[in-house]
Amino acid sequence: MAAIVLRNIKKSFAAVSVLHGIDLAIHDREFVVFIGPSGCGKTTLLRLIAGLESPTSGQIIIDNEDVTNLPPAARGVAKVFQSYALYPHMTVYENMAFGLKMQGWRKKHLIQERVQEVARILQLESLLTRKPRELSGGQRQRVAIGRAIVRNPKVFLFDEPLSNLDASLRAQMRLELANLKAQLQATMIYVTHDQVEAMTLADRIVVMRDGMIEQVGTPLEVYNQPANQFVAGFMGSPPMNFLAGIVVKTSQNDVGLQLPSGLCIPLPALNIAMGEIITLGIRPEALSVSNDAPTLHPEAISFTGKILHIEHLGAESYVHLRINEQTLIVRTSLHPHVGETLTVTTALAKCHFFNYEGNACSGF
Ligand code: ATP
Predict the structure, then answer these.
(1) Ligand 1 atom closest to Cα of 14?
(2) pTM here?
(3) Mean pLDDT throughout 12-19?
(4) How crowded is the C-beta side of 27, counted as CA atoms within 13 Å?
């Protein structure tokens, strides 16, 4: 059992405050991904859990034990970092056996059994006599993971473990990690910049910004119900489209969101004041191309604009549509042409709304 609880963790380096009070409960055997912009404090938080840094204040509990002041070796955690940190003069076998020896394993045949077992899981059996320089990037990363696994830790900490690999190896290792997750049944914390890794590997995603947690949720919760405009804009590629408007009373005496393009969108919300600035968010895939005239259906919104630019990705394209002073990105399997006029439609139910502070508006 290795649930992890972080209580009001703060961390400063000299006068610079990096983490401003992190509260988080990670369940036993959960795979949690920390994601956020560069410098938001993901690695620092991971290093605090590992015991490589001490928090300025707050508590770290692993498996019901307060480990805040324990050294790394006493925490039952294993780390796999971006730089594989393998010992260059040791073979793959020796690299993996080393951690066991450091843990006090003395019986050679037991060490051999354990290393062989892990080598089998990671398909490293044929590479055990090689030195790290004789391995590919993916193989080195597997050895680094193997070195962590042999010790049978309660918690695995991964810091961008795949970022040195090329795209196809990353995809392969991602699958291998997903399999490992099922086999190892350990608690895992994984830091990444990569949204695909976060979405595909995580049981829950922790989105961070500037030393704070913006949202914790399953991948689909974070994607479909972002807590605020930051999370909405950060998760998703291409990013969500944002159009700011002003809340007005429509001619039918309903509440509407008046966009600079002149379009007024019906707002089904009750608790918003006239004149308030609200930002409409629409994911590129929520817009579908229709060459009909702009629809007046109350549950749908249409935008018509000129195509400025198209990014062709083969199976689909990202179309940049100019609507007055704003640009909408539309994800489509159609292949229109630059300069054409295009009408795109979305259902009101697929729209997100954010208030002036950037928080998601409820009640829509
Ligand atoms: P990245 O995604 O770029 O790796 P990150 O989210 O992991 O970034 P951290 O590495 O945790 O961010 O760094 C958070 C902030 O803390 C940064 O502004 C960084 O400069 C600062 N920082 C980290 N370690 C130290 C240190 N030892 N001394 C001073 N400042 C530090």
Answers:
(1) 29
(2) 0.90
(3) 95
(4) 11
